[in-house]
């Protein structure tokens, strides 16, 4: 299999604390990322955290997107919930609008919308869910998602710009879907390096059953996602950064 045909950027979910509770070491991650997905209050995040995270990203010229999730603070947006299409559209409008307020206050453009956790997984598998969430995304704002899924199909139907994602700290099932853990498991640096390099160099990944799965990223802009709540996340992101930088240099992607 051939390497991907585009530059590999890195995105990380940030601002996922709540009140006095801190989730990830956001300040330590900022130097190594290109794009931030900021939690919008339903699975994590609150007004002060959203505001400070926007300012921190702005100071480093990091692109900022909204990271809406299911209304599930206790489960961190990683528990399945059944919502009507109208509810899914409404909670997306609500959360994206909240982040847009903080971006407007700092005169920063919204770069994209990337759904969180189980909502992301539901969109990958269920076209009606994907369509409902897409209807809540502002026009002309790109959506980050998993290529080759119902999420991509809904984006195409709605005429939305789509960015394909790969993952540095998430395993894939044999059908090419993500294995979404309620609580993130640790990764060894060498495992991250191998996992990321395989995806970039072969446009494929080794699934949980040992099979090789093709990742149809096509010619979409591409970003590799890592998570701020993974154990050892700073080392995971540093490793992913080194792999992406090496890949981009070797293939002439400036």
**Largest sheet, order of strands side by side?**
4-3-2-1-9-6-5
**How big is the Rg?**
17 Å
Order of H and E elements: EHEHEHEHHEHEHEEEH
Q: Are there runs of 5+ residues with pLDDT below 50, and where?
A: none
Biggest sheet overview: 7 strands, parallel
What is the average of the pLDDT values? 97
Number of helices, counting only DSSP H or I runs of 4 residues or more:
8
Amino-to-carboxy terminus distance = 23 Å
Helix content: 25-40%
Task: Find the structural class using helix and strand composition.
Answer: alpha/beta
Strand content: 15-25%
- Beta-strand segment tally: 9
What is the 3D form? globular
Account of the protein in words:
- By secondary structure, this protein is an alpha/beta fold.
- Helix content is 37%, strand content 16%.
- It has 8 helices and 9 strands.
- The strands form 2 sheets. It has a 7-stranded parallel beta sheet with strand order 4-3-2-1-9-6-5. It has a two-stranded antiparallel ribbon with strand order 7-8.
- Helix 2 links the parallel strand 2 and strand 3.
- It is globular.
- The mean pLDDT is 97.
Secondary structure topology:
Elements lengths: L7 E7 L11 H4 L5 E5 L7 H13 L3 E5 L17 H21 L6 E2 L3 H9 L1 H8 L8 E3 L4 H8 L4 E6 L21 H14 L1 E3 L5 E3 L7 E6 L5 H18 L4
Helix pairs in contact: 2-3, 3-5, 4-5, 5-6, 7-8
